[in-house]
Inverse folding.
C-alpha cells in the first residue's frame, strides 16, 4: 500500500504535534510502509534487475546516425550545448581507437576503424565512481543496477570524473540554464542541473519508471541499440549476446560494464 | 600568548597589510568564481582537477614535514631540534589550513561541503583525507600551543601531551599516504596507478617541507633576535639531502617500470610531461626545469663544503622547493589527465582568476604563519632563548 496525500498530511500533522520528524513518525504510525512505498515500482514501470545495452556497430552507417541519437538524448535531459572544452555530454560518437583503447590493432579493417562508436556511461557492476564518491551522491541502484546520481547531494569534488575510466562524466562548470535559447528548456518535464555538479547518462531511469525505453534506444533504427534485462535469459539483450560475439570497453579493469558492443 | 602578535614593528604591520591586500584580491576573485562557477578556471571535462588540487597535494607534503623535527627530538632526544619543533608544528598548521582552503575553492558546490559529514562514506578516500587532514591540524594546534605555553613558563610540558606528540608522528605519514591514495587507486589513470606514489609523495614532502624550514630559519635569524642554530639548520639540510635524492630515485624507478614495460597507458603521461605527446607539450620545459633544479640541489647539498655555507644552502633549499613544487604543483595532477581515458589530448593551463585565488590562499597561509611565528619568537625572546644553549631545554 502506498501512502497517499491525505494520509501523509495526517501523519505529518500528528508527528509535528508529537515533535517527531520524518521517517520516525511513519515508523510509529505505519511501520514498514514508507520503505515499501518508496521501493515498490509504479505498475507501468519496465521490470528489470540489471539493465544493459547492446550497441550494434554494424548498424551505424555514418557519424550522422550516431549524432542523431545524441541529439535525442541531450534534448530529453536538457543537456546544454556548451562550446569548448567544458562541454557536457551524456552519449557521443567517437572513433574505434578511442572507445577501445585496449584493442590496439593496426590490422582492423578500415570500415570498422571509421565506424562511429557511441559511448556513454557503462553502468558498471563494479563502478569506480561509486567507490570514490565521498557523499554517496553517485550510487548504484540495487534494484536494477543503474549507476545514478543525486544532484542535490553532489558537492562537485569531481573525484568521480577522475575515477571513471571511460570519460563518461561531465561537470557543470557554468550554469547550464544560460545555454538554452531564450531560456527555453528542450524538455520541461525533466529537471535542469545547477552549476557545480557532475552529471552523466542515467540509462533514462525516469523513462523506465513510466514504462518507456531509454530515449536513444527508442529513437534508434533497425536494432542499432538493444536494451533489456541482463538477468532475464529471455530478454532481447541476452538473446543477442548469446548468438553474437560482443566486446566491452576496458574489460581488464574489472569494472564489468553493462554496455556491450557488436563489431 | 596571542598578544605577542599584536605588537610589532612597522615592517611587521606592513607585511601583514600587504598579505591582507593579496587575500582581499583572492577573495574578490573567488566571489567571481562563486557566482559564475568553475568556468572561470582553465579546467575542462578532460582535465577536471587543476591548480587548486595540485597546490593541495604539494602543501600536504609541506605539512607532513613537521614530523622531521618532532621525530628526532622526541624519539631520539636530538636536542638541537628541541628549540625549533614549534617552527615545524606552526608551519604544519599553516600548510594544512591552505590544503583545506584549496579543497574548498575547488568544490563546485562549496555550501554542500558538510555533506561529507552528513553522509559519511568510508569507501571514499576523500572521507579519510578529511579525517587525517583535520586531525593533523588539531594535533599540531594542541601540541604547538601547549608546548609553547609551557616553554614560556619554563616548565616541562604536561604529561598528557606526550601521547599526542607521539601520535603526530604516524599521523604525519598518514596525511601524505592517504593523499597519494586519492590518486593511486583509480583504475583508468595509468600515471597515478603505481604503488610507489605514496613513497614518492613522502620523499618529496620530506625534501620540500624541511627546505621551507631552512629558509624560514635563515629568515627568522635575520629578522629577529632568535637564532634557530647552525646545528639545527645543518641537520635539516642533511634531511633534505637524503629526501631529495630519494625523491629523484623513486621517480627514476617509475621511469624504469614504465618505459621498460612499454605499456602505452602508463607511458603516454610521462611522454607528455617530459617530451611532449602528439605535438602537445606545455609542461615539458617546466618538468625539465624541475629535474635540473633537483640535480643542482643534490650537487650543492651532497658536498659538505657547499652545504655548510649557509648562503649556498639557502640557494639549494630554493632549488629543492622549485623542483618539488613543479613536480607536484604542476605536473602531478594535470599529467595524470593528459591524455584522457580515450587517449585524446586536452591541455590545461590556469587562468589569471584561478591564479589570483591560488595566490590568495597562499597569502592566507603565510598570514597565519607570520602570526604564529611572531608568537613563537616572542616567547623565545621573552624567556631569553636567543641562541642554542641560552636556556636549558625544559622538556
Amino acid at each position: 500500500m502506498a501512502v497517499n496525500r491525505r494520509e501523509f498530511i495526517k501523519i505529518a500533522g500528528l508527528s509535528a504535534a508529537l515533535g517527531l520528524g520524518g521517517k520516525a513518525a511513519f515508523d510509529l504510525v505505519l511501520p514498514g510502509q514508507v520503505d515499501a512505498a518508496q521501493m515498490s515500482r509504479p505498475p507501468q514501470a519496465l521490470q528489470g534487475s540489471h539493465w544493459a545495452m547492446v550497441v550494434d556497430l554494424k548498424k551505424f552507417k555514418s557519424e550522422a546516425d550516431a549524432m542523431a541519437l545524441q541529439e535525442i538524448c541531450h534534448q530529453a535531459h536538457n543537456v546544454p550545448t556548451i562550446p569548448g572544452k567544458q562541454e557536457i555530454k551524456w552519449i557521443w560518437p567517437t572513433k574505434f581507437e578511442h572507445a577501445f583503447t585496449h584493442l590496439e590493432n593496426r590490422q582492423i579493417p578500415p570500415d570498422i576503424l571509421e565506424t562511429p562508436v557511441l559511448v556513454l556511461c557503462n553502468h558498471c557492476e563494479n563502478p569506480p565512481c561509486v567507490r570514490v564518491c565521498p557523499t554517496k551522491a553517485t550510487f548504484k541502484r540495487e534494484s536494477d543496477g543503474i549507476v545514478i546520481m543525486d544532484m542535490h547531494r553532489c558537492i562537485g569534488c569531481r573525484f568521480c570524473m577522475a575515477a571513471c575510466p571511460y570519460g563518461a562524466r561531465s561537470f557543470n562548470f557554468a550554469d547550464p540554464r544560460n545555454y538554452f535559447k531564450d531560456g527555453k528548456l528542450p524538455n520541461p518535464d525533466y529537471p535542469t542541473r545547477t552549476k557545480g555538479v557532475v552529471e552523466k547518462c542515467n540509462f533514462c531511469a525516469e523513462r523506465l519508471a513510466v514504462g518507456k525505453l531509454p530515449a536513444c534506444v527508442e529513437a534508434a533504427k533497425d536494432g542499432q541499440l538493444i536494451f533489456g534485462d541482463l538477468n532475464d535469459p529471455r530478454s532481447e539483450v541476452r538473446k543477442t549476446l548469446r548468438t553474437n560475439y560482443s566486446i566491452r570497453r576496458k574489460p581488464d579493469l574489472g569494472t564489468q560494464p553493462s554496455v556491450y558492443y557488436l563489431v | 600568548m596571542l598578544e605577542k602578535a599584536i605588537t610589532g614593528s612597522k615592517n611587521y604591520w606592513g607585511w601583514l597589510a600587504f598579505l591582507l591586500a593579496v587575500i582581499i584580491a583572492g577573495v574578490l576573485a573567488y566571489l567571481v568564481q562563486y557566482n559564475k562557477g568553475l568556468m572561470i578556471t582553465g579546467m575542462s571535462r578532460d582535465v577536471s582537477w587543476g591548480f587548486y588540487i595540485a597546490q593541495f597535494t604539494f602543501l600536504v607534503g609541506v605539512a607532513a614535514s613537521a614530523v622531521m623535527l618532532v621525530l628526532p627530538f622526541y624519539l631520539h632526544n636530538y636536542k638541537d631540534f628541541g628549540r625549533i619543533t614549534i617552527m615545524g608544528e606552526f608551519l604544519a598548521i599553516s600548510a594544512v589550513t591552505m590544503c583545506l582552503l584549496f579543497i574548498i575553492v575547488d568544490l563546485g558546490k562549496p555550501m554542500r561541503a558538510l555533506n561529507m559529514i552528513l553522509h559519511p562514506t568510508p569507501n571514499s578516500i576523500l572521507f579519510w583525507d578529511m579525517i587525517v587532514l583535520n586531525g593533523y591540524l588539531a594535533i599540531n594546534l594542541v601540541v604547538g600551543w601547549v608546548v609553547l605555553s609551557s616553554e614560556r613558563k619554563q616548565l616541562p610540558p604536561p604529561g598528557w601531551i606526550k601521547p599526542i606528540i607521539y601520535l603526530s608522528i604516524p599521523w604525519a605519514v598518514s596525511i601524505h599516504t592517504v593523499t597519494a591514495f586519492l590518486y593511486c587507486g583509480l583504475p583508468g589513470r595509468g600515471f597515478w596507478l603505481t604503488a610507489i606514489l605514496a613513497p614518492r609523495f613522502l620523499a618529496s614532502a620530506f625534501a620540500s617541507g624541511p627546505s621551507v624550514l631552512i629558509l624560514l630559519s635563515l629568515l627568522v635569524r635575520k629578522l629577529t633576535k632568535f637564532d634557530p642554530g647552525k646545528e639545527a639548520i645543518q641537520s635539516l639540510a642533511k634531511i633534505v639531502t637524503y629526501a631529495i635524492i630519494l625523491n629523484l630515485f623513486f621517480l627514476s624507478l617509475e621511469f624504469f617500470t614504465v618505459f621498460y614495460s612499454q605499456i602505452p597507458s602508463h607511458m603516454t603521461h610521462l611522454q607528455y610531461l617530459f617530451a611532449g605527446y602528439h605535438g602537445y607539450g606545455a609542461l615539458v620545459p617546466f618538468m625539465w626545469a624541475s629535474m635540473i633544479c633537483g640535480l643542482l640541489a643534490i650537487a650543492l647539498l651532497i658536498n659538505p663544503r657547499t652545504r655548510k655555507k649557509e648562503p649556498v644552502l639557502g640557494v639549494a633549499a630554493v632549488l629543492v622547493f622549485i623542483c618539488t613544487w613543479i613536480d607536484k604543483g604542476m605536473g602531478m595532477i594535470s599529467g595524470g589527465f593528459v591524455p584522457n581515458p580515450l587517449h585524446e589530448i586536452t591541455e590545461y593551463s590556469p587562468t589569471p582568476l584561478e591564479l589570483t585565488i591560488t595566490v590568495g590562499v597562499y597569502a592566507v597561509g603565510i598570514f597565519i604563519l607570520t602570526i604564529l611565528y611572531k608568537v613563537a619568537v616572542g616567547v623565545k625572546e621573552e624567556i631569553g632563548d636567543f641562541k642554542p644553549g641560552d636556556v636549558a631545554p625544559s622538556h
